[in-house]
Design a protein that fits this description.
This protein is an alpha/beta fold. About 45% of the residues lie in helices and about 20% in strands. The protein is built from 23 helices and 20 strands. A hairpin with a 2-residue loop joins strand 3 (about 20-25) and strand 4.
Length: about 525
């Protein structure tokens, strides 16, 4: 699903996200979706894709109707159904155990008869529906819930005048009790938290906009620009103007290994980086160890807020995070997220922010030279129009790399000038759904195959099924020995300044030596 696409749900709809992330508009509400989310949507709803791009979304789409049996009349009539919580849609986070059980169940069904499979499908459907009706447990005491309400209020109204009395009323406790409990929970008095929050937002404005200090002061709740400057200096140790000039002296925590790789290439060493051990390529692992960057290990698609808080960073940066996670991190540090996966754009953006334009330009020249040298080596293949395809084998199907996205897509089809099979040119996403028939029709001269690496799911069975099929054996690339197996951690998650050079070497070696 690509940005701008609109889908109408004429039936009740269940969607399970098995890979990636996205931002949708469901009936006028912006919704951030990620791996493990289960979404129930009532009939006659619409879903608009606001952000898909290279966020790698995949999952199951199930439609159903509800009926009632009228025993007296002996008839069946359509019955109303509504999501238990929410208005027209509901989102539930499935547990790792539930996701693993799905994979195990689907693998077991391969040996079942038709009737047994039907029962299993019904059990699976009711298992999903049951998760909608589970009441969330909470171990938070009433006072803590009240403090969290007051924090949410601060984050929504930080640009307005807010008093401790007002916050205590929102929390439902006395001012004295509120201040004491707030300090225990957050480590600082409530008005200090509010001041820090405002300064974090000011730091973001200074980096992301060209607004004056006076305009920024008013925007974040300071009427007096001189008082704002004093508070800013008290908090950041320097004036707003000097803050922008000395960003490279700040402690940076990257929630993206790719961003950390680019920063290190520019001479900016992050204090810490969030990584998923399964998906970190070898060159990044060695790079982080060499420069003493602390690696915060987390499961795939998860952001551990507690880890980040413990590091006490001065800047948090990375790619996509959900709005809910962003809200929780905004009290920790200024956040620069939503950054691209395109290494060239990252180079220039970081070069500008950290005053490393000269280093960024030098690295860009080196990367251009590497690409030009590769084009020379591959000139005969490029000129012949021989097609190159990247096929992803996933636990529940197949996808192919589109020709109009960022990262390795842009490297292969734009910068190196390799040809995508014509039948696949319509794919607008980063990775697009692909059937075995589509693969046969594309029949590429050269085929790179990625066996998707994921936690909770395994693509081995689909890989085996693919290679045992008759259509696979008839592919030109298979018959000519032009099939090459690639690593998710490098090609998908590691295409940085160093990683891109490694990928280019793999492409040249594979195509030239065969």
């Amino acid at each position: 699903m690509t940005a701008g696409e609109i889908n109408y749900c004429t039936s009740h709809t269940l969607i399970v996200i098995t890979d990636g992330q996205a931002v949708w508009n469901i009936n006028g509400q912006h919704v951030h979706l990620a791996f493990g989310h289960f979404i129930a949507i009532e009939e006659n709803s619409f879903v608009e894709v606001l952000e898909g791009g290279n966020l790698d979304l995949a999952g199951w789409h199930i439609q159903f109707h509800t009926w009632s049996i009228l025993k007296a009349e002996g008839t069946v009539v359509k019955a109303d159904w509504h999501v238990p919580l929410g208005n027209t849609y509901q989102i539930v986070q499935l547990t790792g155990g539930f996701l693993t059980s799905i994979s195990d169940s689907l693998n077991t069904q391969q040996s079942m008869g038709a009737s047994e499979q039907l029962v299993e499908h019904q059990a699976f459907l009711y298992g999903l529906l049951k998760s909608l009706y589970l009441k969330p447990t909470s171990d938070q005491h009433t006072t803590e819930e009240g403090i969290l309400r007051s924090i949410a209020y601060m984050q929504e109204h930080y640009h307005e005048t807010i008093t401790r009395e007002e916050l205590a009323q929102i929390a439902g406790v006395s001012q004295w009790h509120y201040s004491r409990k707030f300090g225990e929970l957050c480590g600082k008095p409530p008005l200090d938290y509010l001041a820090n929050y405002r300064i974090h937002r000011a730091q973001e404005e200074l980096l992301l906009t060209s607004a004056s200090s006076q305009d920024i002061a008013k925007k974040i709740g300071f009427e007096d620009v001189h008082y704002f400057s004093r508070r800013f200096k008290q908090f950041a140790g320097m004036s707003p103007r000097n803050y922008v000039q000395h960003l490279d002296k700040r402690q940076v925590l990257s929630i993206s290994a790719l961003c950390a790789e680019v920063l290190i290439s520019l001479g900016i060493i992050p204090q810490a980086v969030m990584v998923t051990p399964l998906l970190i390529p070898q060159h990044q692992q060695e790079l982080f160890e060499k420069h003493g960057v602390k690696q915060l290990e987390v499961p795939q698609y998860e952001t551990n807020i507690e880890f980040i808080q413990q590091e006490q960073p001065e800047i948090i940066m990375g790619h996509f995070i959900t709005e809910d996670i962003k809200k929780k991190l905004r009290g920790v540090a200024p956040i620069l997220t939503g950054l691209t996966n395109d290494v060239e754009i990252l180079l220039q953006q970081f070069g500008l922010w950290f005053h490393r334009q000269e280093e960024a330009n030098a690295l860009q020249v080196q990367m251009d030279n590497k690409v030009n040298a590769a084009r020379q080596q591959l000139s005969s293949i490029i000129e012949s129009g021989a097609t190159v395809m990247v096929l992803r084998v996933e636990p529940f199907g197949y996808r192919y790399l589109g020709g109009n996205s960022s990262g390795v897509s842009q490297l292969l089809y734009q910068r190196l000038g390799l040809a995508l099979p014509e039948s696949l040119m319509a794919g607008e996403g980063w990775f697009n759904p692909c059937t075995i028939d589509q693969l046969s029709a594309a029949d590429p001269a050269y085929l790179f195959v990625e066996k998707r690496m994921m936690e909770y799911f395994n693509a081995d069975e689909n890989m085996e099924k693919l290679r045992e099929g008759q259509q696979w054996r008839h592919l030109r690339a298979v018959k000519d020995g032009h099939v090459f197996y690639i690593d998710t951690s490098l090609w998908v998650d590691g295409c940085g300044v160093i990683g891109q050079n490694i990928i280019i070497d793999q492409v040249v070696s594979s195509l030239k030596n065969h």
